[in-house]
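During the no-cost extension, the postdoctoral fellow (Dr. R.K.) reprocessed legacy sequence entries with the updated structure-token encoder. One reprocessed record is reproduced below for audit purposes.
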Amino acid sequence: MIKIGEYNELKIVRKCDFGFYLDAETGKTSDDVLIPLKEFDEKEVSIGDVLNVFVYRDSKDRPIATLRKPYAKVSDLAYLKVISNTKIGAFVDFGLERDLFVPMKEQQYLLEPGKSYLFYVYVDKTGRLAATTDIEEYLEPADESFINMEVSGTAYGFQTNGSVKVAVNNKYIGVILKNEYFNRISPGEELNDLRVKKVFEDGKLSLTPRKSPKNERLALEDTIYEYLKSHNGFMEFNDKSSPEDIKRVFHESKNYFKNALGGLMKKGLIIQDETGTRLKQ
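Re-encoded structure tokens follow.
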């Protein structure tokens, strides 16, 4: 039985002008699978040879074999680039002549041509290869060994409360809570240097793009100091500034900002007054 979207070991049973036919082992020659001559280049093959081929459907929905390795096969999670978006769905490049179809109902967010997203590859009810952005059920739970690890992942959507859903290492389920990030994050965005804060009971990883509190404060101190230097030694922000202004300019919470200002004052580098903050002369 031929498995669409997977690798199959099939025997060459006959040749034609445009390729070879591989035995589908159904007893019917009409079920045999074509592998075009262009697949071989200078490689010589003969009747009876067994080939390890990937089988998919061509533009006329006929099973066709290739020696090339696609970027993904059935049941894989893969980071793939969108080629086009149409009224019926999107098409993504998965390394073969025919692009992979993503039906509209399988798009949980807008797919933009030229951008890459994380997809799950499956065979639809008609026997065609397809992909979906609805990947959460295919991600694995993690264990306590991940706590305090630095990991990478791909954003694949948002919870209703604004928290970012992240596929950690494109394998494990994770989330960045809304109060843990201040920059705009989009689905498909690759996120690096995430720290695992905890593991929830269901195996979901709680993530933060922030460093440890001490390192975060030191990094923000450097940011504030450089900001002051580039603005003639003065800024209108101080520990009384609004959380919204601090988030807009420094992409940090007010609490972290106040701690960083305190650190710079203890080092004798800045002074504050009601007008803002200055580098100490």
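The helical segments are 213-230, 243-250, 254-266. Residues 91 and 159 are 26 Å apart (CA to CA). The remaining legacy entries will be reprocessed before the final report is submitted.
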